[in-house]
């Protein structure tokens, strides 16, 4: 592992690269804070890289493809000098004035401020067969895997916007898409519900949950349970797309920061300030409710402005060196 020389203390490192991370980077680069962005080695761009048309991000009257939107944001951040690295953060030490961020390459970065923009991860059903048949008929990404289900009968589980979007996208390939929802009422927005209901390839099965995914080497059958009567049933499909929401990605720092009851990073009011000085959160990782590209982008802007003010208030102008080990473990110098 290569330790950095002590005089390399960055102002801010951003961990994560969805709309929150890139927006924070744009603002902070324009404020001459020279942000480093650790985008993730395989997840650069975040969830929107797995999306098709984004129709509700303001400024794109014809809509824009999710990956194009994220590449635009990355380019915009680079234009102002953000140091964007397609690397993971593998360890964070946040409880000291100069935080340490270990990258997947083994480099240890030192930074006065850190913005956590790690987003959220696909939720799993947690039923037998799901993990075993993942990649063999069980998928979390229609845009990635839909192509493999040409002229097949497949199912989507979930009742939110993601489930509707996945189901609609999958009708381009599949002959029949069955949406399985555990209640009788969809959570998705009306426009998505209307589109899904108008599509003749999509059928809905209400009050139903998946209790098992079966198949020898690939999915062939789902075992279902009626959530009202408890009656079991079976559905023969060759694919199952799980679209039941996301959980905040907090594994890297959940033992160091206060979390909310929803498992998101706790922040102080409408700010991005977490329970640790110099540590800020942005995007889905703090948001159990809205989780839109535009709200994540707004949240990244909030974090950038908070970091800017915090650095101005907390870093003495002559503070250019990493404190000694003793100082590292002491409270933030004011
Ligand atoms: P979501 O809105 O939280 O919906 C999750 C759905 O999965 C709910 O219907 C939920 O059922 C169901 N569910 C959760 N856990 C389950 C389980 N263990 N078994 C079976 N079903 C389960 O998540 P989302 O659809 O991923 O959307 C997240 C956010 O992104 C939302 O704000 C959404 O509007 C946004 N989004 C927007 C678009 C768009 O505008 N084009 C596209 C995708 C996502 P219950 O309803 O019973 O709780």
From TrEMBL:
Gene3D superfamilies, per database record: FAD/NAD(P)-binding domain (3.50.50.60)
Key words of the record: Disulfide bond, FAD, Flavoprotein, NADP, Oxidoreductase, Redox-active center
Enzyme nomenclature, EC number: 1.8.1.9
Record's cofactor remark: Binds 1 FAD per subunit.
Keyword Cytoplasm included in the entry's annotation: no
Family matches, as Pfam families: Pyr_redox_2
Domain of life: Bacteria
Enzyme class at the top of the EC tree: oxidoreductase
Reaction(s) the record says it catalyses: [thioredoxin]-dithiol + NADP(+) = [thioredoxin]-disulfide + NADPH + H(+)
Stored InterPro entries: FAD/NAD-bd_sf, FAD/NAD-binding_dom, Ferredoxin-NADP_redctase_2, Pyr_nucl-diS_OxRdtase_2_AS, Thioredox_Rdtase
Cofactor names: FAD
SUPFAM superfamilies: FAD/NAD(P)-binding domain
Secretion signal, residue range per the UniProt entry: none
PROSITE patterns in alphabetical order: PYRIDINE_REDOX_2 (PS00573)
Record-annotated FAD/NAD(P)-binding domain positions: 10-300
GO-annotated molecular function: thioredoxin-disulfide reductase (NADPH) activity
Subunit structure as annotated in this protein's UniProt entry: Homodimer.
Family affiliation: Belongs to the class-II pyridine nucleotide-disulfide oxidoreductase family.
Name assigned to this protein: Thioredoxin reductase
Organism: Nesterenkonia lutea
């Amino acid at each position: 592992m290569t330790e950095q020389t002590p005089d390399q203390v960055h102002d801010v490192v951003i961990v994560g690269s969805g709309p929150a991370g890139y927006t924070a980077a744009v603002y902070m680069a324009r404020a001459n804070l020279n942000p480093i962005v650790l985008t993730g080695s395989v997840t650069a761009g975040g969830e929107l890289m797995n999306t098709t048309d984004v129709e509700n991000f303001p400024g794109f009257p014809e809509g824009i493809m999710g990956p194009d939107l994220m590449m635009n944001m990355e380019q915009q951040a680079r234009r102002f000098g953000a140091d964007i690295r397609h690397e993971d953060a593998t360890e964070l030490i946040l409880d000291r004035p100069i935080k340490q961020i270990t990258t997947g390459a083994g480099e240890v970065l030192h930074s006065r401020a850190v913005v956590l923009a790690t987003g959220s991860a696909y939720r799993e059903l947690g039923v037998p067969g799901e993990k075993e048949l993942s990649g063999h008929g069980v998928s979390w990404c229609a845009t990635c895997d839909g192509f493999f289900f040409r002229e097949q009968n497949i199912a989507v589980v979930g009742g939110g916007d993601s489930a509707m979007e996945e189901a609609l996208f999958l009708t381009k390939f599949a002959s029949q898409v069955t949406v399985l929802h555990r209640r009788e009422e969809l959570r998705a927005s009306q426009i998505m519900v209307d589109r899904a209901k108008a599509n003749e390839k999509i059928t809905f099965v209400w009050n139903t949950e998946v209790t098992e995914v079966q198949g020898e080497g690939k999915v062939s059958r789902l075992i279902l349970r009626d959530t009202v009567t408890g009656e079991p049933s079976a559905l023969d499909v060759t694919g199952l797309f799980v679209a039941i929401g996301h959980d905040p990605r907090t594994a890297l720092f959940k033992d160091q920061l206060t979390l909310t009851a929803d498992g998101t990073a706790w922040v102080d009011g409408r700010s991005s300030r977490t329970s640790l000085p110099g540590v800020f959160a942005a995007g889905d990782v703090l948001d159990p409710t809205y989780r839109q590209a535009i709200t994540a982008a707004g949240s990244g802007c909030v974090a950038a402005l908070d970091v800017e003010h915090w650095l101005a208030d907390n870093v003495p102008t002559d503070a250019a060196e990493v404190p000694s080990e003793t100082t590292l473990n002491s409270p933030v110098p004011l």
